[in-house]
UniProtKB/TrEMBL annotation:
It holds the Pfam family Aminotran_1_2. GO terms for cellular component: mitochondrion. Homodimer. Gene3D superfamilies: Aspartate Aminotransferase, domain 1 (3.90.1150.10), Type I PLP-dependent aspartate aminotransferase-like (Major domain) (3.40.640.10). It catalyses: L-aspartate + 2-oxoglutarate = oxaloacetate + L-glutamate. Residues 32-398 form the Aminotransferase class I/classII large domain. It comes from Trichosporon asahii var. asahii (strain CBS 8904). Belongs to the class-I pyridoxal-phosphate-dependent aminotransferase family. This is Aspartate aminotransferase.
Amino acid sequence: MTFTNFWAKVPQGPADPVLGVTEAFKRDPSDQKINVGVGAYRDEDGKPYVLDSVRKAEDILHQKKSDKEYLPITGLAQFLVLASELAYGKDSKPLQEGRIAVVQSISGTGALRIGFEFIRQFYPGPKNLYLPQPTWGAHASVVEASGLTVKRYRYFDAETIGLDFDGMKEDIEAAEEGSIFLLHACAQNPTGVDPTQEQWREISDIIKRKKHLAFFDMAYQGFASGDVDRDAYAVRYFVEQGHEIMLAQSFAKNLGLYGERAGTFSMVCASVDEKDRVLSQLKRVIRPLYSSPPLHPAQLVTVILSDPELYAEWLTEVKKMSDRINAMRERLYDLLVENQTPGEWGHIKKQIGMFSYTGLTPEQVDAMAKYAHIYMTRDGRISMAGLNEHNIKYFADAMSKAVKGELGLKSSM
Ligand code: LMR
């Protein structure tokens, strides 16, 4: 043991499965390069997009010249009310009865971390957290970092490129009673495949019968259908059915506030008294992690959600983003067919939300990066928002060649 070089044995960590793609993209000097890795919206020119409603809210905040005092550990009170109304619906019974414990979080990931930590400390059932197979690249590491055990349930059927509903039901049924199931509220990441409303009702029944805990991750409210209420269907239905759900809510995508880190963690409790006790413990989870949440993102969201005009403008903008993504789905499909790309590509049009789960193999993904400077996660997921009229033809040509095994052959790109 030497005390002169403390960190000599620190091994190199692997790149992050999602954010590592952006790092690789940034290192590539090519001017043809395309990043369809990270799920962040881009405009028609491939540029990051700040919503007009957000710009206006920033102006309002600037005029207000508010102070920079610490927020309470649980966050900005008005933000918490408005964010919960958006997720649960204004007429939600537990919301009206004041029995939803809600705290501000460092966006969706922070919300998951708070929830998992609370589970680790207080959950009376088995601390097995079931993730869909596949799921967002960072889910498992957040679960593991929180000391819970990762389990998987079947979700995606590679043959039908759709939901493996029977497999999913079987796995929920077979899990030890009282297990925890993480459910993507809408626009499942990475597959873009969601259960139908009827399927959600069946899932709710089984979870209830098996006394499992439903933990919803809602990172795309508004992005799936362009309608925030419709996208909250599963969350609201489960609550109506009496599930004491947990919910991670993110404003990264639907308000385009990626780097602002606005979100909430909430959980439905049986009574006001129980909620108060839960909140007292949530504070004890948060305080040693980061003391209290950031002020600015909560203020921004509050301005937008509390001003009827800005709120309406925001809804129009979410719809616009979701429509542009859908237009890109159509274009990509048409181009792949035009290029006589082997395979059936209808799923690209059918999938929901920001991503398409293309079915490209890891080797094809690698070839796309190496020979065409196109970057995506190794599971073949592409962020449709990274495509636009200027780059979609180049992208589709490269993808067709990758599928045909022609990328990298001389004169291929
Ligand atoms: C994604 O899946 O691309 C996003 O949720 C960004 C992230 O943090 O991984």
